[in-house]
Amino acid sequence: MHGQGRAAYKARQKDPQVAAKLQQKANNWRQLTSKLAQAPPDVAWELTETLLKVNPDPLYIWNQRRTLFLERSVDDDLVEKELGLTASALQSNPKAYGAWFHRKWVLTQAAEKINNMTDLLQRELGLTELFLQRDERNFHCWNYRRFVVALQMQADSDGSWWFLLVDDEKDQKPNPNCQTRVMGSQVVLPTKNVDTKPSQPTPTAAVSQILRAEWEFTHTKIGQNFSNFSAFHCRSKLFKLLWTNVEKFDISAEFQLVEDAVFTEPDDQTAWWYQDFLLDCLATLEGDQTDPSFEKLIQKHLENLTELAEEVTECKWVRLGMLRCLAHLPDSKDRQRELWQEVIVMDPDREARYRHMLAKLDRE
Predict the structure, then answer these.
(1) Maximum separation of any 2 CA atoms in the chain, in Å
(2) Domain residue spans in the chain?
(3) Mean pLDDT per segment of 10 residues, for the chain of length 364 residues?
(4) Among candidates 172, 161, 170, 155, which has minimal Cα distance to 234?
(5) How confident is the model at residue 159, as a pLDDT?
(6) Which helix (H) or strand (E) holds 179?
(7) Belongs to which family (predicted)?
(8) In CATH, what number does 243-364 get?
(9) Helix or strand run (H / E) with residue 347
(10) HSE-up of 136 (CA within 13 Å, CB side)?
């Protein structure tokens, strides 16, 4: 239904030829699913593939496919077959929940049983790039990409972005002080034998290289479209993992990215959200909002937004962005009051909320 008017869609359903084809398709589907319910494993294996290529949405068929998968010996050929099936399903529906989950599940089953896992994961990243060229904000694909990155960093990962980085690449000793979790799990890992050795954490240098590559990827996608919230969201998750300090991490470049976006389209909320994230994150990580480097950075950004406000006199988002900056600067209450009054005039429908914020400012 995306991009298609409801009236046009309903009109098609009333066409006798279209209705007849849909009825025949429904009859064929019922026949196949009835046959599947009583089929032996080998026949069921083929039937699930046929059904899922026609319609990749029914989760119960994916569940049955996984049950049949577990009865087989996992090798490179089987994994390739399953990945091919999900690729075909995703060509039909790029946002099919079941197909994306099945692809993740297959990778967890394959992690320690195939010979070319490293190459396979790199290929999977390439696949996500192709899907994101078709739909740059397909959150299913972005989530799958994060899952693949997690596997690159630790083979038995459940998709969480939670890492025990190591101090020394030679002895692989985990550093408890480097525990970071910014994304939850995406799959339940298969049960291991008692004598199975846990996978080693990826060396710090390799993890940094992987994360940096993702950081550059999000920058590329944002540069292609400043409205790509999915790319900004992924970048926000990478931010804390890559952050060390202002000297080693060019945080000013992040504010420049925000400015590039808002100067291009000041009414788009995506970049303003990322600005808010940066301000809150900086305040937390710096630990001291009175730090001169913190204050200088915010002040410079505020000056640039002030210039923008002079050009776009009717845009409330610029004023709200300025208010967010001023909230992190000392002795700024008078200027904040002025801006709240301007926002009230620009957006009278939300006057009550803005007056509440103004009253809150006076109470502080």
Answers:
(1) 77
(2) 116-187+198-221, 243-364
(3) 60 71 76 85 93 93 95 92 96 95 94 85 95 95 95 81 51 48 80 49 74 95 96 92 62 94 97 96 64 85 97 96 95 95 96 96 87
(4) 161
(5) 83
(6) strand 174-183
(7) Belongs to the protein prenyltransferase subunit alpha family.
(8) 1.25.40.120
(9) none
(10) 17
